[in-house]
Specification:
Elements lengths: L13 H11 L12 H13 L6 E5 L2 H16 L3 E5 L8 H5 L4 H4 L10 E4 L4 H7 L4 E6 L2 E2 L5 E2 L4 H12 L2 E5 L23 E4 L10 E5 L1 H4 L15 H16 L2 H22 L3 E7 L2 E6 L4 H15 L1
Parallel strand pairs: 2-3, 2-4, 4-7, 7-8
Antiparallel strand pairs: 1-9, 5-6, 8-9, 10-11
């Protein structure tokens, strides 16, 4: 109902609406070669909240685009071509992002044109990651908390271990924070729970308060491996989306939504855990902040549809 994690500040947040109205009457689009005050403001806002050391940004229009940029940057920087992704991982459905996505139901219809440079290791298993590494491994891409894959939280020591592996093997570490970012987990970035900083971070979804926007944030020397013109976007960084993103970030900070997600998430998870203990058809409650999942031992689709039908009948 929140648009796959988009409506973090709610639907039509007044600050976002006001920013969009003001900007659309001033300037809607602006070529990337020209200075724009809203783009500059957004970049400054991102630098204030980004993990320390990530100080160069490429603006795009979605999470999948942010991932595409990250993949290209990692390959260009290292001169290598293999990428290790995770079982259950989801990174988007454009060809590069889909190549990094594990689920066969998304991959199989297009498997004949997906990149063969991607391989998968079980989430949480450092030994399997080490076995998958070759001298041609350019990057490891991972979600600190797997979203579409079932809200699986990185086990203790896992992200720290990936950081160590990458440092020792000249491998770029990419964190996909498209769902986990901007306070959802009770920290501005989920990686903060473990104190680990990636080389590249992909963000989107909640960033624009409902307006499409994404960003790839990287260490300067890594992002600078791209030459002018090697990766561009017609609509990336347009003033309208930047204005919405500025308002969204301001709302998150000014309304203390990160801390609110932590407080409400702890309370909500406690309630879910109580249900797990009471009903044996439930297997586990997991997650951090307000990024939570409740796993059942049975298929709940028909139950949800019947509940929806009953609610509709009651309203009628």
């Amino acid at each position: 109902m929140g648009g796959y994690g988009v409506s973090l500040v709610g639907h039509c947040h007044p600050k976002v609406v006001k920013a969009i109205k003001e900007q659309c009457e001033r300037l809607i689009t602006c070529h990337g070669s020209l200075y724009n005050d809203k783009r500059a403001e957004l970049l400054e806002n991102l630098m204030k909240i980004a993990p320390k050391g990530l100080n160069k940004v490429f603006l795009s229009n979605s999470g999948a685009e942010a991932v595409e940029c990250a993949i290209k940057v990692a390959v260009k920087y290292t001169g290598k071509s293999e990428i290790i992704s995770m079982v259950r991982g989801f990174h988007g459905k454009t060809l590069g992002a889909l190549s990094a996505t594990w689920n066969p139901k998304y991959r199989d219809p297009f498997k004949h044109i997906l990149s063969r440079s991607f391989k998968f290791a079980p989430f949480g298993r450092l030994d399997e990651v080490k076995e998958a590494i070759t001298e041609d491994t350019a990057a490891i891409i991972v979600e600190p908390i797997q979203g579409e894959g079932g809200v699986h939280v990185a086990p203790e020591g896992y992200l720290e271990g990936l950081r160590k592996i990458c440092d020792e093997n000249n491998i770029v570490l990419i964190f996909d924070e498209i769902q986990t970012g901007f306070g959802r987990t009770g920290r501005m970035w989920a990686s903060e729970h473990w104190g680990v900083t990636p080389d590249i971070m992909c963000v989107a979804k909640a960033m624009g308060g409902g307006i499409p926007i994404g960003a790839t944030i990287a260490k300067e020397d890594i992002m600078d491996s791209l030459k002018v013109g090697e990766h561009t976007s017609t609509f990336g960084g347009n003033p309208l989306a930047c204005a919405a993103a500025c308002a969204t970030i301001n709302a998150i900070i000014e309304e203390n939504l990160v801390e609110r997600a932590r407080f409400l998430g702890d309370r909500f998870k406690g309630l879910l855990q109580g249900l797990v203990e009471e009903f044996n058809i439930l297997r586990e409650a997991r997650g951090l902040g307000l990024m939570l999942g409740l796993e059942a031992r049975i298929d709940v689709y028909s139950i949800l549809m019947r509940a929806l039908e009953r609610l509709t009948l009651i309203h009628i």
